[in-house]
Design brief:
The complex is a heterodimer of chains A (516) and B (189).
Chain A lengths: L10 E4 L3 H13 L3 E7 L6 H5 L2 E6 L10 H11 L3 E3 L9 H9 L3 E2 L4 H8 L1 H11 L14 H9 L5 E5 L9 E3 L5 H16 L4 E5 L5 E9 L5 E13 L2 E7 L6 H17 L4 E9 L5 E7 L6 H8 L3 H9 L16 E8 L1 E2 L5 E2 L2 E2 L2 E3 L6 E5 L6 E2 L6 E9 L2 H14 L1 E3 L5 H9 L1 H4 L7 H4 L1 H4 L9 H13 L22 H8 L9
Parallel strand pairs in A: 1-2, 1-4, 2-3, 4-5
Antiparallel strand pairs in A: 6-7, 6-8, 9-10, 9-12, 10-11, 11-14, 12-13, 14-21, 15-16, 17-20, 18-22, 19-21
Helix pairs in contact in A: 4-5, 5-6, 7-8, 12-13
Chain B lengths: L1 E8 L2 E10 L2 E6 L2 E10 L3 E6 L2 E10 L2 E6 L2 E7 L18 E3 L4 E6 L6 E2 L4 E7 L2 E6 L4 E6 L6 E2 L4 E7 L16 E2 L5
Antiparallel strand pairs in B: 1-2, 1-8, 2-3, 3-4, 4-5, 5-6, 6-7, 7-8, 9-16, 10-12, 10-15, 11-14, 12-13, 13-17, 14-16
Chain lengths: 516, 189
């Protein structure tokens, strides 16, 4: 495969939105590459639109008409003269047809070649390829279907609880767990519907459910010259409904021997398909130390920053450098992670109500900072969270000398993180990090469900005196002004009828408006 | 000059009095009294010293809903018990059998029709929002009297989706403890 000369990436179109689009814009900028953002009509005011060098509207709010609209995206690339397309994660990131189309148009797809994506991006094909390469796989079907009847038949052929998974899937979309026979049909129907809507492909397959395993994945980088390395593992066991919530590296569950064995299996998996660019081999790890290949993600992962924090390797920059033909600048023996990193995904959702998404305007936003703290954000104060897309606002990442240092650092950072206007998962993360099972490294994928009472009940306990005092002062003052992105006429502009002169002296630039 | 407020933070309520003093304020929370000084107001922030301890609060007022963040925790504020202090995403399923949309999205499936009987927890509609399909369940057992939505329709937060008349008195309504939320994202019970 003849791949790109060194200077071929002059301008990259980013076929995504939110925090990952911002992440890619920054990586491009650091490499002197111009950026093009695409946006739907709902995202006109989004951060990634404002930060890119150029921006093109590619369709209406629903993803199918915009971020999944291949023709429109290709046209935008043509129109702006982009040399390459970076798909980010989600949307078209693991769609081999899209990758093939991009290449067919003479553009560079930043990711593995379509052939590799076909072999690995399709979860069913991946299972077959891994089985053939001698990598252990979870028992289940090695064929898939988008017909309810067929899938139900496969599910009923397996003894005990099963998982229905989208063949094109990822991130828990189009995935259902089935406890017994009665729920099979509706679960299969929902999984197919969700897969169809999220990926444009309703094919699902069935796996035996392995209860409460750990989820451990290995980061891979492969260049176009045949070099493949792994950058150690990420532990992603803190999940709710098969969606990762919090990730850390290194995994508290791996001994050096197990890390070596799983790392070698990850390399074997990647080599079996001649992997190129950034990818991830996901394993599930049973209590007895047995591990199974779960799937391969042929894209940058949401949780890639924790690997960047401990290894010092800029994965998104390397995606771009590999795409323009560079050789990896390091070999396996040089990968030496330091310290411990944790990532908290900050979603606009309400964990006390079944994780219902929380749409609305971000009225106030104050982000944490300090040593070892990184916040990959895709939003700003005054921006409106829309119902059309994944409700991730940002990813808060910390690096500490060891797990406990990282845990404490994250707790402090979460306390500093203020978001008002929408519900977020900030409080949930604090409860997870303070939970005895998390502290004692005893976390598996059943952790959140098992501890729902302690984790999902919202903030409880005594309301501190400061909160009552602050609330009363706010009432007494008639508001305390708006956050910088606020709308014009909040009660902030109202004055109060006495004490005003005193306050005026105290706070300088407070403006007195109409009398209350 | 002293003023008294009935403050409600989330579900809790307290009487708090505020007295202006030459140094700042005396604030009484229930029976406890605090000396509050060095109050400074910024863009949506309020900083003050309580008995020499620093406190920093963020305050916002979106959609007439006053919210407070202090000490890493968020609260909805209301003065006087009568005020609504609804935080975003607060409950919308009526115990009376009205089903309202818990989020904006589009209807992908309508599971029952008017006149049909449902048990508490039975799926009524499937709503797609943020790429997830969410099953909206009947909050009570009864008969569907109105279906207010159809497949493909876009609905907003709090929009009426359906209405269920309780089955034969109050006996059925409390039958299923899990049905209270009336909302589930997936089936993996």
């Amino acid at each position: 495969m003849a791949r790109k000369k060194k200077d071929i990436l002059g301008k990259v179109l980013i076929a995504n939105r939110g925090e990952i689009a911002m992440r890619i814009i920054r990586a491009c900028r650091e490499l002197n590459i111009d950026t093009v953002s695409i946006f739907s009509e709902a995202d006109r005011r989004s951060l990634h639109v404002r930060q890119a060098d150029e921006a093109v509207c590619i369709g209406a709010a629903p993803a199918a008409e915009s971020y999944l609209n291949v023709d429109s995206i290709i046209a935008a690339a043509r129109e702006t003269g982009a040399d390459a397309i970076h798909p980010g994660y989600g949307f078209l990131a693991e769609n081999a047809d899209f990758a093939a189309r991009v290449a067919g148009e003479g553009l560079v797809f930043i990711g593995p070649p379509a052939s590799v994506m076909r072999a690995m991006g399709n979860k069913i094909d991946a299972r077959r390829a891994m089985r053939d390469a001698g990598v252990p796989i979870v028992p289940g079907s090695t064929t898939g279907s988008d017909r309810v009847k067929d899938v139900v038949k496969d599910a009923l052929a397996i003894d005990g609880p099963v998982m229905i998974k989208a063949s094109a899937g990822g991130g828990g979309k189009g995935m259902r767990s089935v406890e017994d026979r009665r729920g099979v049909e509706s679960a299969v129907r929902e999984a197919i519907g969700e897969a169809q809507s999220a990926f444009g492909d309703g094919t699902v397959y069935v796996e035996k459910r392995i209860d409460s395993p750990r989820h451990v994945e290995f980061q891979i980088l492969g260049d176009t010259h045949g070099h493949i390395v792994h950058l150690c593992e990420r532990e992603c066991s803190v999940q709710r409904r098969h969606q990762k919530v919090l990730e850390e590296t290194p995994s508290p569950a791996l001994t050096p021997e197990l890390r070596m064995a799983m790392g070698n299996a990850a390399l074997a998996a990647a080599r079996a398909v001649h992997y190129e660019n950034a990818g991830t081999i996901e394993f599930i790890l049973d209590r007895d130390g047995a591990f199974y290949f779960l799937e391969m993600n042929t894209r940058i992962q949401v949780e890639h920053p924790i690997t960047e924090m401990t290894t010092g390797v800029d994965l998104v920059q390397w995606q771009l450098r590999i795409a323009r033909g560079e050789e990896l600048a390091f070999v396996q023996e040089q990968i030496a992670p330091r310290g411990h990193a944790i990532e908290c995904r900050i979603y606009a959702e309400d964990e006390t109500r079944n994780f219902v998404p929380s749409c609305g305007r971000i009225d106030c936003l104050s982000e944490p900072s300090g040593p070892g703290i990184r916040n990959d954000s895709g939003v700003y104060e005054g921006w409106e969270v829309s119902p059309y897309y994944d409700p991730i606002l940002s990813k808060l990442i910390v690096l500490g000398e060891n797990r406990e240092a990282a845990r404490r650092r994250m707790l402090c950072a979460l306390d500093e993180y203020v978001v008002l206007g929408v519900r977020t998962s900030i409080g949930l993360h604090g409860r997870i990090l303070r939970h005895p099972e998390f502290i004692s490294e005893n976390v598996d994928t059943g952790f959140i469900e098992r501890n729902a009472d302690a984790l999902l009940g919202g903030d409880s306990g005594e309301i501190p005196d400061e909160a009552w005092i602050a609330a009363a002062l706010v009432e007494d003052l008639g508001g305390v002004g708006k956050c910088s992105g606020g709308s014009g006429d909040s009660r902030a502009q109202r004055a109060y009828d006495d004490g005003g002169a005193w306050l005026w002296k105290q706070i300088g630039n407070w403006e007195i408006g109409e009398q209350r | 000059m002293s003023r008294e407020y009935d403050i409600r933070l989330d579900a809790k309520e307290r009487k708090v009095s505020v007295t202006h003093t030459p140094e700042g304020y005396t604030v009484r929370v229930g029976k406890r009294e605090f000396s509050v000084t060095d109050v400074s107001v910024g863009q949506g922030t309020l900083a003050f010293l309580v008995n020499r301890k620093m406190a920093l609060a963020h305050v916002s007022d979106g959609d007439g809903m006053l919210q407070l963040s202090i000490g890493g925790r968020n609260y909805g504020i209301a003065e006087e018990a009568g005020d609504s202090t609804r935080m975003p995403g607060a409950g919308v399923q009526g115990g009376d059998g009205t089903i309202r949309s818990p989020m904006p999205g589009s209807i992908v499936r309508v599971c029952v029709g008017a006149g049909e009987r449902v048990e508490a927890g039975d799926p009524v509609v499937v709503l797609e929002s943020m790429k997830m399909q969410n099953e909206i369940a009947a909050p009570i057992a009864g008969t569907v009297v109105v279906m207010e939505c159809s497949v493909g329709q876009q609905v907003g937060f709090g929009d009426m989706l359906a209405s269920i008349a309780p089955a034969g008195g109050d006996a059925d309504a409390g039958g299923d403890a899990d049905a209270g939320g009336g909302y589930s994202r997936t089936d993996d019970a």
